Amino acid sequence: xxxxxxxxxxxxxxxxxxxxxxxxxxxxxxxxxxxxxxxxxxxxxxxxxxxxxxxxxxxxxxxxxxxxxxxxxxxxxxxxxxxxxxxxxxxxxxxxxxxxxxxxxxxxxxxxxxxxxxxxxxxxxxxxxx
Length: 130
Prior knowledge:
globular, alpha/beta, 5 helices
């Protein structure tokens, strides 16, 4: 697995901001504008993490997280969701679909980078202990 992160959003300013800031964390980002493109990219090269913007019309990007969890090479991919709110029911839905962490707008790219680092480190430790 590489240090590549898939960003799933159709919000160009958000994508540019995340790409620039996460590059400072040492991550290469690939922005996908829809779920099918993200799944295709993940199948070609499993990413370290996926960041999904749930504020996209006509698509449930949480389906991407669920699909990644069901596929061996991507089952341990870190998943961060950008939600419309942090209401308990919305957070529970995202967690139930496989998201490791959630945030809402305005997005803090440094927080996302730090959470991806923590998730990846924890999963590496889990594999080493097994």
